[in-house]
Design brief:
Blueprint (H helix, E strand, L loop, with lengths): L6 E11 L4 E10 L5 H4 L6 E12 L2 E14 L4 E6 L11 E5 L6
Antiparallel strand pairs: 1-2, 1-6, 2-5, 3-4, 3-6, 4-5
């Protein structure tokens, strides 16, 4: 049941980049089911969580999170740009992220 999830799934595509340089401060994300810029507008300002497992346990858990926020759209195919508190590591490229459905502007 998809009604149990309070977040939308997405993928990390990589860093914002030009032909010869890349900007690790901004990550490109593809949210599942979003195909157009108009659809992506809904997710602007939403919180994003990159959840991963670490080897060393901290506070009784090996699961850690890097939080971010969706800043703006990128192109016409529904890709969005996001800024994270700590830049995402390159090993996160292609991995899944959680797009929280808050803060709500409805």
């Amino acid at each position: 049941m998809a009604g149990d999830r309070l977040y939308a799934k997405g993928r990390v595509l990589g860093y914002e980049r030009a032909k010869r340089s890349q900007n690790p401060n901004v990550s490109l994300l593809q949210v599942e089911g979003v195909q157009t810029t108009k659809d992506a507008q809904f997710y602007l300002g939403k919180r994003v969580a990159y959840v991963y497992r670490a080897n060393k346990e901290k506070n009784g858990s090996k699961i850690r999170v890097i939080w971010g926020r969706i800043a703006r759209t990128h192109g016409t195919s529904g890709v969005v740009k996001a800024r994270f508190r700590n830049n995402l590591p390159p090993k996160s490229f292609g991995s899944s992220i959680r797009v929280m459905l808050y803060p709500s502007n409805i």
